[in-house]
Prior knowledge:
Distance between the termini of chain A: 45 Å
Number of helices of chain A: 10
Radius of gyration of chain A: 17 Å
CATH architecture of the largest domain in chain B: Alpha-Beta Barrel
Order of helices and strands of chain A: EEHEHEHEHHEHEHEHEHEH
Radius of gyration of chain B: 24 Å
Helix content of chain A: 40-55%
Strand content of chain B: 5-15%
Strand order of the largest sheet of chain A: 2-3-4-5-6-7-8-9
Helix content of chain B: 25-40%
Largest interface: A-B, 50 and 58 residues
Number of domains of chain A: 1
Mean pLDDT of chain A: 96
CATH topology of the largest domain in chain B: TIM Barrel
Oligomer: heterodimer
CATH superfamily of the largest domain in chain B: Aldolase class I
CATH class of chain A: Alpha Beta
Structural class of chain B: alpha/beta
Strand order of the largest sheet of chain B: 1-2-3-4-5-6-7-8
Low-confidence stretches of chain B: none
Shape of chain A: globular
Amino acid sequence: xxxxxxxxxxxxxxxxxxxxxxxxxxxxxxxxxxxxxxxxxxxxxxxxxxxxxxxxxxxxxxxxxxxxxxxxxxxxxxxxxxxxxxxxxxxxxxxxxxxxxxxxxxxxxxxxxxxxxxxxxxxxxxxxxxxxxxxxxxxxxxxxxxxxxxxxxxxxxxxxxxxxxxxxxxxxxxxxxxxxxxxxxxxxxxxxxxxxxxxxxxxxxxxxxxxxxxxxxxxxxxxxxxxxxxxxxxxxxxxxxxxxxxxxxxxxxxxxxxxxxxxxxxxxx
Amino acid sequence: xxxxxxxxxxxxxxxxxxxxxxxxxxxxxxxxxxxxxxxxxxxxxxxxxxxxxxxxxxxxxxxxxxxxxxxxxxxxxxxxxxxxxxxxxxxxxxxxxxxxxxxxxxxxxxxxxxxxxxxxxxxxxxxxxxxxxxxxxxxxxxxxxxxxxxxxxxxxxxxxxxxxxxxxxxxxxxxxxxxxxxxxxxxxxxxxxxxxxxxxxxxxxxxxxxxxxxxxxxxxxxxxxxxxxxxxxxxxxxxxxxxxxxxxxxxxxxxxxxxxxxxxxxxxxxxxxxxxxxxxxxxxxxxxxxxxxxxxxxxxxxxxxxxxxxxxxxxxxxx
Lengths: 269, 319
């Protein structure tokens, strides 16, 4: 029997999933969902955004205190104030989102690539100097210049970043392109790559599977595919689709119970 | 290269709950959406009346007694029963290892391959290439959606070298959702616009009447809430450039964007909505309002209504 490759799973229900309009988890729901995912064996939980304020920070700290095995990451904009708020929570991973397409850099941020690189390095150094594990999310990577992403990844490697995330922020990838992008970034960038996909075309699971076969180390997903617009890659649906080829935690046999309990927690609000 | 895309919805759904007029409108709009052919059950064929275009319609039959003469083609699992008619033979293949089974069919040009939803677990490009090599260009791929990947498989297949495919509205019958395939083909810009996707909201309405089941508000391409935005970072981005957080303009699929106010709202979104409601908000008081919005939204576990927003804005001295 061929040994299956281990594929890491990150759950971002508490951060990106909650961004679905009208979806609001209170502190107790967030802690219960985190514990449920942790017990089911999830590798990493994206617990939230400390920069949102003291309420969010308190919840994140409780999730960190209560966790058993999962690694807890927190999400940051490209902003030193965000990093400082995150460091106060003492998470396992500080994840920094770096807008990487030209529409994001020039139209949304109204900045340029030079500013972006300088700001990115400042934020990474700030967290790394305090000994934090840092991962970077390339926001809107699916519309970014691949050469630029490779360049950024190499600089991030030199700064001690652990992993970069290729984000299909607006969900426009097809599996063929997802494969090419993740394969190229993994091969040329020199860092492990994770994949974060949205379901705007209905391709989130297919793109995640294509990314995994292209060498992605981790896949990011949410419970019930919660998330902005048509949602994110659905965690349980991905596990069901990927289990024949990959070793996954949560395991396929635990998916039904995970969804049942998560549904109860979400409805309890 | 020209591809042929067949819609299977009226083969799969029971339309007995709605009027003939509803079925006829649905049939007409599916062609307008971009399907080249439609496949229908005998029961639904009878309901189409004068609207039925047999030159663009395949009749799906289970038994020779179902046959109605005059259709461009017929589909059947056992075409031997329909020996005198132009028949599409349906062959189910669970995984690529079964591909060799196709060798036993002499007339591969009239095959429709159903299944193959697990293709992304393997080297999918090689597998699709293998399939292409084994089949003449007139054969058709009809992936099933057990793994949620059918529309992606069909899109990859149609993008290659112009294979033919079959799908169904909103994934009816467990097939690929045709609207996802049509939109993806349009967005990849490799193909000319083949249909008018602004008919999708009306098609969705008719489909919901036919099935009696509402579609998820978050269903890709069709959901009523897929262009609703609340998160501060996304509202701010969209206000600066709609392209920043939208995969395609909502108008392309007959939809409209909307902003809501809730726990994840930011200052830019609140300011924008208050201005839309006809107020000139005080920018200096916005942070206090933002905190109140977050608290209220979390207490109520939902987004705020316009009235609730205005009440909080007045209390915070923003308007």
